[in-house]
Amino acid sequence: MTFVKPKKRLGQHFLRDTEIARRIAETLPIESETSVLEIGPGTGMLTRFLANNHLINLTAVELDCRSVEFLHKNFPTLKVIEADFLKMNLKDVFPEKFMIIGNFPYNISSQILFKMLDYKDDIPVLAGMFQRELALRISSPAGRKAYGILSVFIQAYYDVEYLFEVSEEAFDPPPKVKSAVIRLTRNKVEALPCDEKLFRTVVKTSFNQRRKTLRNSLKPILPQSKIYADKFFDKRPEQLDVQQFVNLTNLMDAELQNNRIEN
User: Contact 84/63 with Cβ under 8 angstroms?
Assistant: First the structure.
């Protein structure tokens, strides 16, 4: 089959290395018939390897009309949805569990991951290529400079594997940033043993002033409290792993409830 690439828009960087595309496709742990959503297939470099796997029921979502036209022409049996992934109701497309893969658009990668978390019980695996800086942030353990809000939220529900890095020369034209491929696999945590809404608030509030100690950064949630005397609050947010944030959330929750009773 001869592939004719759609014209590039300003800022687009198409993957041109077929070996890298093959390696990305093989990051999905496909052992039986599986529904897979490819986000932003563009020129179909990754699509061709996914479409050749008879165990994959592939759906592609693409926003650019020229790429959609290209995909219809070169992959006539492929289900292509012309839409903005961030605005999709994924339950309408996949009534059962499905995996996600892609050479993800770097400008919306974080938003894609936050949307994944909204459907975490339906998405057992997400794999693909991200800007290396974001991939390092997602996979970073507690105590590292890259560790932050997204690290905590994703690691609470997914095991993260940093698989390999990709040279700028694998793209046309070469981008000014480095890339890396990671795989997220849903862990066994059905629900965190804390108020999950408060957990998100505690994590975000803590990292909003990451250079400050927890004692100072958490005062917007709990302006005055005796619990701040605990040496635990001398720590900075990047020092806490997921379980410690769960413990912190329960501590804050208990104190908030005590304050309501007293008032």
Answer: yes
